[in-house]
Amino acid sequence: MVETTEMAPEGAGRGEPRRIRSFVRREGRMTDGQREALEQLSPRYALDMLEGPIDFALAFGREAPVSIEIGFGNGEALLSRAEARPHIDHVGIEVHRPGVGRLMMNAHERELGNVRVMSRDAVEILRDQVLENALDEIIVEFPDPWHKKRHHKRRLIQSEFVQLAVSRLKAGGLLRLATDWENYAQQMLEALSAAPQLVNLSEDGGYIERPASRPVTRFEARGTRLGHAVFDLAFRKKGMGIE
Known about the structure:
It is a single chain. This protein has helices at about 30-45, 55-60, 75-85, 95-110, 120-130, 160-170, 180-195, 220-225, and strands at about 5-10, 20, 65-70, 90-95, 115-120, 135-140, 170-180, 200, 230-235. By secondary structure, it is of the alpha/beta class. A seven-stranded mixed beta sheet has the order 5-4-3-6-7-9-8, sandwiched between helices. Strands 1-2 form a two-stranded antiparallel ribbon. Helix 1 (about 30-45) packs across helix 4.
């Protein structure tokens, strides 16, 4: 998944605090099909033009559980989930524009009406455009591990983000994560376990087996060939929720 970093001002005024973003937008090489999808399909699939809190029922034209996936890359896993779970509405957040174009192109070809996309800072979207207790699921799979120790502060999954994510989940909502970096997995486990509103779905309080809802992507297959173990985590906000 694409997550590099930049230093960005918290506000526009002089002397205001600066915070670390977990990404910087990288356009990369874009095919004609991806560019055409961004130009022609954004009115159908993109929610970026919306201001203020998002009414997901209005955005999708129905009342349904909502799952947000942060950093969907090329959209392979998100599309698989959307096809397998048509009763759930899926919102993907990704700053890599070619991946956004590819997702919209494939969603259009497969006639998936339960997919929408956003191409901005996921933290800002959750903070400013998602109401508390609005989501049934948040998925973060293979975020940038920032493997150098001095860069660990740039990792997305830290206590501040966990608190924000938990506040946006409904009672019973699920927080699903995966990484192939062991020390990041340990950091994830510690951050999620420290949240009193969350319950670890692992029987031994650690990691879970790969859920059926998470397909093995090319990214994961490449890591496996390189000898990387994959660590899956699943935590539920106390209450009842979707499966």
